[in-house]
Specification:
This protein has a single domain, classed as 3-Layer(aba) Sandwich (Rossmann fold). The protein has six helices and seven strands, in the order βαβαββαβαβαβα. The chain has a seven-stranded parallel β-sheet with strand order 4-3-2-1-5-6-7, with helices on both faces. Helix 1 links the parallel strand 1 and strand 2. The termini are far apart.
Length: about 190
């Protein structure tokens, strides 16, 4: 489960992100987050929340080094890619669902990647940014995936778990179909 958020935010947004991370960990899910090298963020607040509940965290960072702000992440994945595009692919695509809160262009990039990959998006409303703008909407005219709105961190986690499990079942069913096809037709 991914968590995406902004770098300029209120204390309330930071507490909500912390609550998201804590809730994700309490449900036994793994938190993937954008690991920053130069400043704290809502994603790192989510990591702190997950760690406070004994959760497993995976920080995906840009560049080559593992020197990140949230140094107690369980796994640090240097993507070798730049922040603002490449790193976001490595962060979003392994996720079964993504929760966004607040956000600017980086969060919007992550939302677009999830949207293109049909990964469920949960928007925790009430903290501004692109999350509030897109909550309950489609990103484009294809209308492939409506972004699901949530009003509290607890609701966002519940929805993300539900939608992530559904996504995972569909993903695994498609893999089985592909395997049957390959076995039958080589």
């Amino acid at each position: 489960m991914g968590s995406a958020g902004d770098t300029k935010y209120s204390k309330a947004a930071e507490q909500a992100a912390y609550g998201l991370g804590r809730g994700i960990a309490q449900r036994g899910a793994i938190l993937f987050f954008g690991a920053e090298k130069d400043y704290d963020s809502l994603s790192t607040a989510a990591c702190r929340g997950a760690k406070s509940a004994g959760g497993l965290t995976v920080g995906v960072t840009y560049g080559k080094g593992k020197n990140i702000v949230q140094s107690d992440a369980d796994v640090i994945l240097p993507s070798g890619l730049v922040r603002g595009g490449g790193r976001e692919l490595a962060l979003v695509l392994p996720c079964d669902s993504v929760i966004t809160i607040s956000g600017g262009s980086g969060t919007l990039t992550e939302m677009a990647i999830a949207y293109q990959a049909n990964i469920p998006l949960i928007a925790l409303k009430g903290y501004g940014g692109c999350t509030d703008y897109y909550a309950g909407r489609f990103i484009d005219s294809r209308r492939t995936l409506r972004i699901i709105e949530a009003g509290t961190p607890k609701e966002a986690v519940k929805l993300a778990i539900r939608e992530g499990l559904s996504y995972r079942r569909n993903f695994e069913a498609n893999i089985r179909k592909d395997e049957k096809y390959r076995l039958r037709y080589g």
